[in-house]
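Hi F.,

I've been meaning to write this up properly since the lab meeting, where we talked about keeping a consistent format for the predictions we share between groups. The idea is simple: the sequence comes first, exactly as it goes in, then the structure tokens exactly as they come out, then a line or two of notes. No screenshots and no reformatting. I'm using this chain as the first example so we have something concrete to point to.
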Amino acid sequence: MDKPLDKSTDNINSNASQTLTNHLLGIKIEYKCKDGFFYEDDQSTEKYATCDRTKGNFIYPEPFGKCVESKTCSQKPPGTETLADSGSLGDSVTGTLGAVFTETFSNDYDSSKTYNNDDIVTYKCKSELDEVFKGTERVGEIKNTCQWDETWSLTDENLKDYECKLNLCDIRQLKEQEANAGTLTLETQTHVSFNENGIFKCPEGQLREDDPTTAEFQVLCESTGNFKLPASWPTCADASDLVIDFSTIR
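Output, unedited:
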């Protein structure tokens, strides 16, 4: 029986005895990566050599290779091209690749950084009023992962499925209306999603004169990206001066 291979220089621990006296027919030897290491071909942590009963030697896995801590994606991830990279504007449709993609999407790719397996490059819409969509699904952001086979999880074709769409009303529209809103003050301080409301509120201790059951006034964000502003703004009055018709309250 031949002597088992010593793979210790390849970051592999072997439980095989190195003495011929322990080599029995039918023995199976486990070659396990050291903690935190993986076989470079398939990211497994162990491989086995088996004994050939007829020839009296060991049959080793192919490929056997060595164990490594990580693999590196050396290629630049798709969708991070610039005009200088492509030499042209590329595709003219928002959401497809070429320089137009990077005109619409920002990303956190750092060319000075080494990207190993499981490292992620994230893409977001450049406009703070846009959100990332995949078809009709709002996904927020795109994540592209460096994989063990040294490729990126999302290809050029995959990224074509994403686009940036206007999905918010700019809160600055309402801030500009505060001067017209009388004593109402704007409570909402962030951009508002379509079909949701920006909120104005009466001063403390006051209610709306037109609806004394509430101190709030809501302004709808429409799918055009604009708020549906009222023809006239409601006024506020001290709650003690208002009469509530409880028959109208359900």
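Notes:
Residues 16-23, 83-96 have pLDDT under 50 and may be disordered.
The longest strand covers residues 46-52.

If this format works for you, I'll send the rest the same way.

G.
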